[in-house]
Design goal:
Elements: E1 8-11, H1 21-34, H2 42-46, H3 53-63, H4 70-87, H5 93-105, E2 109-113, H6 117-127, E3 135-138, H7 150-159, E4 166-170, H8 173-181, E5 185-188, H9 199-202, E6 206-207, H10 217-225
Parallel strand pairs: 1-2, 1-4, 2-3, 4-5, 5-6
Length: 228
C-alpha cells in the first residue's frame, strides 16, 4: 500500500461486520425443510460461510436433488433471511468501532458481499452502518462470486481506488483468497476459529487467529493507517 495514497477499506458483511450467520443458517434450514430436507445442521452450514447465497443453493439443490428452480429457492431464502434480519442483527462491537474510526478519518469504505443487494441494504440500514458505508456490491451484480476477485474489484472501481490501495476485511477463506486474487491487502478475522490455519488466511497480511474475540479496532486501525 503506497504511503502517498489514502487507503480504502472493503468489508465483507456477514460474519465480518455483523453476526448474521445464525440468521442465514435458520433461513436456509427453513427453506430446505419445506422441501423435505430435515437434517441440515449448523455444522453443515459452516462449510458454506464465505460462499454466496446463490452458489450455496446451487450446491444444496444438487446434493438433495431438489426439483424447485434455483431462483425460487433463492427468493425463498432471501425472504426468510430479511424477515429474520429485520428482527435482529448484531454488529460486532469492535468492528463498529473500527468503522467509526475510519469514517472519522475520512477513509473511503465499501461492503462487498455474497448476499443479495436487498439483504445488504437492509442490514446496513438497520444497524446504522449505512451512515458510514455508502458503497456496496453484491456478488449477484458481478460475474463470479468469491473466491474469485470480481466483487472486490467492482468495489474498488466504485470507490475510484486502485486495487493495490485497498484493504479487505474478511472472515472466511474464500474471501481472503478473493482479496489476494484482486491484488489487495487483507485483514483476516476468522468466523470459524478452526479455519485460522487455512492457507488463504495464513497468506493474509494481518491475521487475528482468535477471530472476533481477538480483533480490536485499535490494532486494525493502526495497521491500516500506519503507512499514511
Amino acid at each position: 500500500m503506497s504511503t502517498a495514497r489514502t487507503p480504502s477499506v472493503i468489508f465483507d458483511l456477514d460474519g465480518t461486520l455483523v453476526d448474521s450467520e445464525p440468521n442465514y443458517f435458520e433461513a436456509g434450514r427453513r427453506v430446505l425443510a419445506t422441501h423435505g430436507v430435515l437434517d441440515f445442521d449448523w455444522e453443515q452450514h459452516t462449510r458454506f460461510i464465505g460462499i454466496g447465497t446463490r452458489e450455496t443453493l446451487e450446491i444444496l439443490r444438487a446434493r438433495y436433488a431438489l426439483d424447485a428452480p434455483l431462483d425460487e429457492l433463492l427468493a425463498a431464502k432471501n425472504r426468510a433471511y430479511l424477515e429474520l434480519a429485520s428482527a435482529s442483527t448484531d454488529v460486532f462491537p469492535q468492528m463498529r468501532a473500527f468503522v467509526e474510526r475510519l469514517s472519522a478519518r475520512g477513509v473511503p469504505m465499501a461492503v462487498a458481499s455474497g448476499s443479495s443487494r436487498a439483504a445488504i441494504e437492509a442490514v446496513l440500514a438497520g444497524t446504522g452502518l449505512a451512515a458510514h458505508i455508502a458503497v456496496t456490491v453484491s456478488a449477484e451484480e458481478v460475474g463470479r462470486g468469491k473466491p474469485e476477485p470480481d466483487v472486490f474489484l467492482e468495489a474498488a472501481r466504485r470507490l475510484g481506488a486502485a486495487p493495490a490501495d485497498c484493504v479487505v476485511v474478511e472472515d472466511a477463506p474464500p474471501g481472503a483468497a478473493a482479496a489476494r486474487a484482486a491484488g489487495m491487502r487483507c485483514i483476516a478475522v476468522p468466523y470459524v476459529e478452526d479455519t485460522a490455519e487455512d492457507t488463504a488466511f495464513l497468506a493474509a497480511d494481518l491475521l487475528f487467529k482468535g477471530g472476533q474475540r481477538e480483533f480490536t479496532a485499535e490494532a486494525a486501525y493502526g495497521w491500516v493507517m500506519g503507512g499514511t
